[in-house]
Amino acid sequence: MKSLIRVFAIMRKEFLQLSRDRLTFGMIVGIPLGQLLMFGYAINTDVRNLSAAYVDESDTHISREFIADITASQVIVMKQRVASVYELEQLLDAGSISIGIAIPGDFDRRVLERDRQAAQLLVDGADPIIAGVAQQLAALPLRFDSQARVPKQATLLEVRNYYNPERRSAVNIVPGLVGVILTMTMVLFTSVAIVREKERGNLELLINTPIKTPELMLGKIFPYILIGLIQLVLVLGLGWYFFQVPIRGSLIHVLAAALVFIAANLSLGLLVSTVAATQFQAMQMAFFFFLPSILISGFMFPFDGMPVAAQNIAEILPLTHFNRMIRGIVLRGADITSMLDELLALAIFTAVALTLAILRFSKRLD
Amino acid sequence: MMNKKQIAITASGLTMRFGSLVAVNNVDLEIEKGSIYGFLGPNGSGNSTTIRMLCGLLTPSSGSATVMGMDTKKESESLKQKIGYMTQRFSLYEDLSVKENLQFISEIYAVPGKERKHRVVELLDSFKLADRAKQRSGTLSGGQKQRLALAAATLHKPEILFLDEPTSAVDPQNRRDFWETLFELAEQGTTILVSTHYMDEAARCHRLAILDEGVKVADGSPRQLGETISSHVVEIEADDPNNARLCLLGSEEISSITQLGIKLRVMIPKTISDPVQLVNNSLVAANIQAKTEQVFPDLEDIFVSVTQQRRREQGS
Q1: B224-279 pLDDT, tens digit each
Q2: Which domains does chain A have, with CATH numbers?
Q3: CB contact under 8 A, B89 and A204
Q4: Mutual angle of helices A340-360 and A213-243, in 10-degree steps
Q5: Could you tell me which chain A residue has the CA closest to the CA of B156?
Q6: CATH of domain B1-82+158-222
Q7: Span B230-296: which CATH code?
Q8: Is B57 in contact with A6 (Cβ distance < 8 A)?
């Protein structure tokens, strides 16, 4: 009973302080909103409208038709025609184009005889995404309506795109964003909230009262669980509204996955708070955790493409497991019970971090 | 006023080391219930560290302490309900109002629901904070903050109150009121342990200990301390105190000279049987007109004397 009074006292105080700390309050809503809009609108891995130029040394109706065809694909925007391959290279060097198309003088003959490639793409391959686009262009089938002699070729494989047929990046990004934002809120805000008490001297008063460590921690973290859930609703709701990201799975399963993930991150936040002496230190430590979380958890880049070492590290990060769960549930309508491995991984992480945090937090000053 | 001599706090051989630094060195204490006990010493003399050990916040490197019959090492958690602690720095929440802070503390001590409201109102009244109840505590003046901190520390009616330099940011009038409150609390039976570096505050304590570099160099009532120090104090009133000072500086027997306006206070070891005569002789020799009088040592004299004595002992 007394415990409950104390936990509620801490919670109430935390809410009062939060409602008065406009900056933090703004971040709680502002960060999800800002990130959602930025990731949703700005980041697009399905690249279009790359700048390009071409040199056409044959200048026949076939070559002109070819240029028109390739422009119509919308993958590139033809900026200019130049006189020589050398000029194309100069434009590439200057960075004013990403792709150059060189059509040789014997283009027609090459097209007809089909013994060699008919033309050349000069690609700014420094960016692998652009290089990938060039691959797409190179795979364009040769077909000219006026050239009946060229038979239409069937490709070896046909692609059927499940879950995201329009290949919209937002569909993949938005569920992942839930995890990124929760990581940020739970680890950063929780650790800062506790370290702040240390820094402002409040903790010296608190540890002199009969409050017990678990009561203090529980009271401190509960408000942030609520905030985490608000952010979850915000991101998924706005993702659905702005970017038509579907939620195919059960909402209960989404909630369950989120709660387990929140628990893992909160434990880490608590652990950070017991190590850091100032709010600034807490922030620095949190960033050491964010960076790998964002980069190698599979949020930004496909997990399978990473080297084994990176994959092993990523398996430690809660975000990796959450990404798999939330994408599974939200995008593929998967059942959470089919992802017990991920749940188990998060549970182990929580147990380890929480144990360390409680061991480290002492009601004494030494 | 005091009941039969009951002991609230005892400590024996209390020692705290931080690495190679010995912050508190082998301190013994015995503090009576219902008394105001002062720790006098400059910053860094081990006052705060001693208080923190007695609260159970720091584990002593060696030695032990008993507070209200409870061992500070083993029973620090149950001790918390019996002690109130006012930190050196204002440690309530600056972004909460005065009333919210007190409510929070009342909940933390799990004061029963019905009493809680009543107790908060009572404290707001008795600490003259009722008109500030809704103000954020961060915007209070030094004196108001201190009253709030004391109100919070006494909310659960502790038997022992630890005050760590409570008046460092407070004007004289507020300090006077603050001490009135402390005496009222002591009369109601609260034992109060207060650290300070103000001599006038130390003089108000029933008993005090003087700490110097973590060592207890003296303890007793201000009166006892004055009687037991190893120096006479002579007050000199001269028309030209500066000249008198220069003249006396040459005398080997004089261990310290302090100027207070037109007066000089001179300390002379008790091995000299007639200190007034000694001073007069020097002054007459230099042809300086002055009135001399032997006085009872005040706390500053006591403090200077005992710390000097310790330095001398260390030196030899």
Answers
A1: 988 888 888 999 988 888 888 888 887 888 888 888 888 888 888 888 888 888 88
A2: 2-43+168-360 (no CATH), 50-138 (3.40.1710.10)
A3: yes
A4: 140
A5: A209
A6: 3.40.50.300
A7: 3.30.70.100
A8: no
